[in-house]
Design goal:
The protein has helices at residues 2-31, 38-53, 60-97, 102-131, 136-149, 151-170, 175-204. By secondary structure, it is mostly helical. The protein has one domain (2-204).
Length: 205
């Protein structure tokens, strides 16, 4: 009976933490007028979840605000780089799709494929950012490597995101409390094991 009560309390605690973190994410995204607040707010959310996985006792609100302020300009710069790459891929795919000829059609499909691959890289971009201070190109290289060498984990993260997407379509009220935090927790939890193994290999080397 006691174990059942403890388990229920633990679940309720996690639900409350995820809801509070999601509200912080939404509020601080709006604080940066949406466009400039989304990236630093998302980075801060992943950083807080990293603390949870490390079982560090921190104030979620204070830690969120600290990371948000610290990473505001850098996160927006890197986010702008990602958005620019995605926009150029999409724009060129659209241009090639309007041209006559098989070669242009093939190029259009290739660029769409690259655009989809870039979206996949976001699965690992944010967990990597929360753990390491890399250059922009290093984030892309490591994220790409994780996709290639861990296809099952990548598929798991992708499937989880799709399931959550349809869940929120069915129950829109949940968006306010869990839309960002639940996806971030899934991605961070799934990537964190790989990151720990990567660090262990480096320590042995």
């Amino acid at each position: 009976m006691n174990s059942w009560i403890e388990g229920t309390n633990r679940i309720c605690d996690w639900v409350a933490k995820l809801a509070w973190l999601n509200i912080l994410w939404l509020l601080f995204s709006l604080l940066g007028l949406g466009l400039f607040g989304l990236m630093p707010s998302t980075i801060a959310m992943f950083a807080v979840i990293r603390k949870w996985l490390q079982e560090e006792e921190v104030s979620d609100g204070k830690e969120f605000w600290r990371i948000y302020k610290k990473e505001f300009w850098r996160a927006n710069l890197l986010g702008g780089g990602l958005a620019l790459i995605g926009y150029l891929l999409y724009l060129n795919a659209q241009i090639f799709s309007t041209m006559d000829g098989m070669a242009f059609e093939v190029m259009s499909y290739i660029l769409v494929g690259f655009l989809g691959y870039q979206c996949l890289m976001l699965i690992y971009f944010f967990p990597l950012y929360a753990n390491y201070e890399f250059t922009f190109s290093q984030y892309l290289v490591y994220a790409s490597s994780m996709i290639i060498y861990h296809p099952i984990r990548t598929a798991f993260s992708l499937a989880g995101c799709i399931l959550l997407f349809f869940l929120y379509l069915s129950y829109p009220a949940l968006l306010i409390f869990f839309s960002g935090s639940s996806i971030a927790f899934l991605l961070m939890w799934n990537a964190y094991g790989m990151i720990l193994r990567f660090e262990q290999i480096n320590m042995r080397g």
